[in-house]
Amino acid sequence: MNDVERGSGTLEQGQIFDAAFLEAAQRLRLVARRVAPRGRFAEQKSRDRGSGLEFQDYRPYVSGDDLRAIDWTIYRRLGRVFLRLFEEHEDLPMYLLTDVSRSAWIESPPRAVAGLRASLALAAISLGHHDSVGVFPFSDDLQVLQRPTSGKGRVLELARRMARVERGGETDIKKALRRFRALGLRRGLVVIVSDFFDPGGVDAVHDALRGLNHELLFVQLVRASDRDPRAESGDLRLVDCETNEAHDVSVTPQVLERYRAAYDRFSEGLAALARRRGAGLLALDADADIVPQIASLFENGRREV
Amino acid sequence: MSLTQLSPLGLVLGLGALAGALFLLQRLRVRHEERVVVTTLFWREATEESRARSLVERFRHPLAYLMALLVAGLLWVGVARPDSVRAGGTRHVLLLDGSAGMAIGGRFERAVDALRSELRRAPRDRTEVLWCGAGVRSILGPGEDRALLDARLEGLAPEATPASIERAVRGHLLTTEADGAPRRYVVVGDAPVSAALVARLGADDSLQAAELPEPPPRGRGITALGVSPAASGNWSAVDVLVEVRGPGADGAQLEVAVDGGPPGSIGARTSVAEDHVRHLLRGVPARGGLLRVALSADELPVDDVATIRLPDRPPIRVALDAGIRGDAWDALHAALAADGAVEIVADPARADVRVASGAAQGGPTLSIVPASEQEEAILVGHRARIDSRAALVTAVGELGLDRIDASALADALDRPIAVGAAPAPERTLSLWSELFDAERTSFVESRAFPLLVGRAVRWLSGAEPLVPYAAAARPTPRRVGDPAREVVILDSAGESGVSLVDVATTAPRGAADRATLDATDPEGAGGWRPYTWFLLLALLALGGEWALFQRGRMP
User: Contact A208/A174 with Cβ under 8 angstroms?
Assistant: First the structure.
């Protein structure tokens, strides 16, 4: 192996998280277009009308409504009972599904580092805005590293937990998401941080997302060498780090050209899937600093996903 | 550059072996370097597309293989120089020149090296080597192991003989004519080849010269040595002609000795040209001595000395029988006494020739017989091994019978005059006694009579006529029926007769001769041979392969 290394199973905390990183993350604001009902009050707008501070609308009273919401002034003026509706602010449950499969660990620096940093950054941002965050590393199975929790003080605890993440096996998004659905978590924002190099390709990702009733954000961890593997030349036996399948390749410019075409098809397929699902798609360069990349994604400190 | 010459089958087998070896090498190249990668997802897609265009499933580089095969094939054809289909059965005849001209410096050693080189390139089963010295003989037959050549070359050296290459080629052409196979002659040496010989070659034959360095300049030498009866008429003396040719011939000093002593003759020198001088030695005593003529040695010493065994010509002893009738005896005695080559002896036992009356009694005899006992007026008795007709034809000239006025004799004797020949134990000559009758004929008074008597005595004594002139590679004048050698060779002792090294046959090949040889080379020695083009094409293919590699079209 030249530039590909088999990484260690765990990371030191300092490798994924530092004060400057958190400070930068605090300036970001993740805004969801929609949040699910029955959540805690927080700074995220909800479709539900509730008992918030900002008046939104009236509606006729029906049996069972909270009597405290009746607008008695209108009743006195019109003789009819209406309820005052206020915009309800709820927290945004964020479920971070971070790819820790074997493929995320073999390069230098490991792609898992970038993935965990991105996850921690997003978690810090969300926790800083009183949203709940759950962390679920996955490879061929799903781990529950942190059930949904909230509070700014959780960031360090979350960082410590993330530093103890162990290297997983083969990427199996389908199985991981099936296990996630089985957790029965309320509807939220599912952020999948991965290279999406499932042996089944984009089709496997598409199949895995069936039945997942959450908002989606794809964070694709990429490298320049993913599309342009110039370092590979000659007659090579390429061994898949996850499946251990060997594939003999004689690298020629024609083969490289076809490789790039295949990669482009994969990327376009992933983008098309995101569009169909109304999901966001963020591509982060695993070789570059994560914070500046995330900062550039959140224009003016806010970004809707 | 040439490795060997192959038959078409050999060429095809060689190409097949190359193709197989390259194929295996290509397969060996599929020993891939192992790399662990994040995913093989995209590599699979990329190579599955390319595999559909592969020659075979696991054969990844058909273009590289074809290019390598093209280059290797061109090199193979260029280096192997296979025989064409036409030349599949070509006989290769290597002619090693062993003539005197090859004795200059190290010419012969270089010729032997060239011979070995030619032999390596020629197919063993169809190649023979002929030694062309004084005689022509095979020193390596077709199919014989080449290692034998060294043993057979042991002791071989240029001989003091003119070139025999042409003789060898002519002989080989005759002996292999019925074969029908093309013949390729390679002259390994400096012997010249005449255009006439080239013209005799078949359409499929070729005559080439092995590559040798330019020969050094050749000096002057003795090119002709001849002996003839003395112009003075002295029976016991001869005249000797010595011819010297070559650069500096005019100023060359000639030393002449007979048995180590002075020749006892008067020399005359004639300069024909600056490089051509004739020396004539008159009246050299013909006593069987060894005449040696020598020039100061130059680059080719072998032609600076020539020797000849002079004839031994003592007086012919003749016994004149007293029984011969008076007029005849007087005429015969007068004729014999006037001949300086004849010594009249009284004792018949000491005589070389007898002149007697009646039929011959034994020994060479000039018989005088009456016409009643012999049908022919002149009867030649010859040895039984010679045909009577041929003997008669020879005798007419040698005995001077053609000088006799037969018509006058017939008129005088009133009967036909006939000449006949018959086998006899010894040479005899029988004449009618009536021819000596002074009252009836004037035969004894004619000019033909002393000539007939003198020649008859010489002929009866068995004295061999002198070779009037001899030159190398030229037919030696000889009598009909005499099986003399065509080429007279000088050996170191001079015992074989006359030795002459002729300029025309031993001089190094000139430019015109080389052109003649080159013209017979079917491959065109003057320009680029086809195999050179193959090598050039191989280089171009290599350049093309490099260009494809640079453009990324080949791994």
Answer: yes
Question: Token digits for B496?
Answer: 């074989």
Q: What's the DSSP call for residue B507?
A: S
Which of chain A's residues have a Cβ under 8 Å away from the Cβ of B39?
A: 103, 195, 197, 199, 240-242
* Furthest-apart CA atoms within chain A: distance in Å: 87
CA pseudo-torsion sign A251, A252, A256, A261: negative
CA atoms within 13 Å, Cβ hemisphere of B321: 18
The reply to whether B35 touches chain A by the CB within 8 Å rule is: yes
pLDDT of residue B502 exceeding 70, the answer is no
Structure tokens at A171: 């990427």
pLDDT confidence of residue A270: 93
Which residues of chain A are within 8 Å of residue B26 when distances are taken between CB atoms? none
Cβ distance of A103 and B38 shorter than 8 Å: yes
Whether A197 and B39 lie within 8 Å, measured CB to CB: yes
Task: Check B40 against A240: CB less than 8 A apart.
Answer: yes
CA atoms of A68 and A50, how far apart (whole Å): 11
Q: What is the pLDDT of residue A138?
A: 92
**Contact check, Cβ <8 Å, B46/A256:** yes
Alpha-carbon distance of B447 to A39, in angstroms, equals: 168
Find the mean pLDDT for residues B529-555.
76
Q: B51 pLDDT exceeds 60?
A: no
Alpha-carbon distance of A215 to B450, in angstroms, equals: 154
Both tokens of residue B452?
């007939």
**CA–CA dist B186, B170 (Å, integer):** 14
Quote ipTM for the complex. Answer: 0.76
- Per the model's pLDDT, the better-predicted residue between A123 and B362 turns out to be A123
The pLDDT > 70 percentage for chain A reads 75
Over range B306-323, report the average pLDDT.
83
Residue of B519 and B183 predicted with greater confidence: B183
Give one DSSP letter per residue of chain A, joined into a string: --SB----S---HHHH--HHHHHHHHT-EEE-S---SS--EEEEEEEEEES-SEEEEEEE--TT--GGGB-HHHHHHHS--EEEEEEEEE---EEEEEB-SGGGTSBSS-HHHHHHHHHHHHHHHHHHTT--EEE--BSSSB--SEEEE--TTHHHHHHHHHHTPPP--S--HHHHHHHHHHT-PPS-EEEEEE----TTHHHHHHHHTTT--SEEEEEEEE-HHHH--TT--EEEEEEETTT--EEEEEE-HHHHHHHHHHHHHHHHHHHHHHHHTT-EEEEEETTS-HHHHHHHHSGGGEEE-
Cut 0.80: pTM above it = no
The whole-angstrom separation of Cα A181 and Cα A210 is 10
Residue A218 Cα, gap to closest chain B Cα (Å): 19
Sheet strands side by side (includes B206-209)? B136-140, B127-132, B91-97, B183-188, B206-209
Q: What is the mean pLDDT of chain B?
A: 77
Specify the pairing of strand B221-229 against strand B290-294. Answer: unpaired
| pLDDT per position as a tens digit, B214-246 | 766 667 777 777 788 888 888 888 888 888 877
Beta carbons within 10 angstroms of residue B243's beta carbon: 24
Confidence of residue A271 (pLDDT cuts 50, 70, 90): very high
